[in-house]
Amino acid sequence: MLQQTSSNFSIFAVDDGSDDETFDKLADKVDDAADAGVPMRVWKKENQGFTISIKRAIEEHSDSKIIALHGAGDISKPSRLEKQYRCLETNAGIIAVGCECDVIDHLGEIIAERTTPEYPERDLQDGTIPRPGTHGECMYYRKQYQKCGGYREPFEYGQDTDLWLRLYELGDFYSIQDKLYQKLKSTDTIQGGREYDKRIRQVICSGAAIKSAEIRNSNGDDPIGELDDFHFSELCSITRMGEIPEPTIRGLIRVSFYNFMEGNIRNSVSALNIMRLDDVNTVLKQVPKVIAISIYKKYYKL
Q1: Strands 66-68 and 40-45
Q2: Which has the minimum average pLDDT: 46-50, 67-71, 102-106, 277-281?
């Protein structure tokens, strides 16, 4: 971030309760940032998870007109912020901008590429989510972020899906067709049986975000926004209102398949049991595609 071609930004780094040397390493960069003309603050806090941490960082500790994200371990190319800022400021109607990115391992080797349509669109019929990018490389206006409600705490996972669906209702997205970001592939995978609960929660949270958008676009009500006290069971109930979104069905099939391949039959069956008999036709259409993609990802470790 200190190699950006523009210094017209500040850094607010969040250490979400790490027990290693993360805070010290970040603190050591404050003087380097000052030398580069970039104000930098480091906030060490108790562990609260990504959603609450980024929500508090944006809403309690910063007041900038524009918000740019940057994931831990990731790399922003030098021209990233300048190009994204220029895109936002010179294109009326665009309120969020991302870019293409490479996925890298801990050695810095490129192991995959992530592309995004230049003009991301939404189609709730087939579950197409309007994503300006993969989250870490995105930039958006604070005004619209606040107007749509920002990150919502119930979304321990799928918080980006929920945010993009609400933000898209206020303006257009754009993805710069240039690789301005490198995303570190985490070794803390949530695909396997040992992390079954996390994976299921991710699928259900994203499904609840899609279903909430469907209902919101149908009658203006937001089933999530109307609840004061949230539990995961409510997200499950919202996801199962009417037809379960196709991306959720694909996700459940994927979780079931991974667990079956690992010999965890109980979790495999449990994932499928979340669906209903009414979803059978959709399931049958999705199975071959999902299994093919799952096998590819498993053996190529993407």
Answers
A1: unpaired
A2: 277-281
The token pair that represents 127 in the structure block: 């579950």
For residue 140, what are the contacts with CB-CB under 8 A and spacing of at least 6? 66, 67, 88, 95, 96, 97, 132, 167
Q: Strand 172-184 relative to strand 75-76: parallel, antiparallel, unpaired?
A: antiparallel
> pLDDT digits over 150-181, tens only?
999 888 899 999 999 999 999 999 999 999 99
Distance of CA 38 to the CA centre of its chain: 27
Residue in this structure with the two tokens 């920002």, named with its chain if needed = 150
Q: What is the CA 192 to chain-centroid distance, rounded?
A: 20
Q: What residues form DSSP beta bridges with 45?
A: 16
Domains annotated on the chain, with CATH: 50-184 (3.90.550.10), 193-300 (no CATH)
Q: CB neighbours of 171 closer than 8 A, spacing ≥ 6?
A: 93, 94, 95, 96, 144
Give per-residue pLDDT as tens, 25-64: 999 999 999 999 999 999 999 999 999 999 999 999 999 9
Question: HSE-up of 216 (CA within 13 Å, CB side)?
Answer: 20
Beta strands per DSSP E along the chain = 11-16, 40-45, 66-68, 75-76, 94-104, 110-114, 139-141, 172-184
Do residues 43 and 57 touch, judged by C-beta distance below 8 A?
yes
Question: Tokens 């993360």 appear where?
Answer: 22
Interacting residues of 145 by C-beta distance below 8 A, sequence separation 6+: 58, 67, 163, 167
State the Cα–Cα distance between residues 152 and 145, nearest whole angstrom: 11
Q: Which two tokens stand for residue 283?
A: 């399931």
Q: How does DSSP classify residue 244?
A: P
pLDDT at 296 over 60: no
In our burial notation (b when 16+ CB lie closer than 10 A, e otherwise), range 115-130 reads ebeeebebebeebebb
By DSSP bridging, strand 66-68 and strand 139-141 are antiparallel
115: tokens are: 């592309």
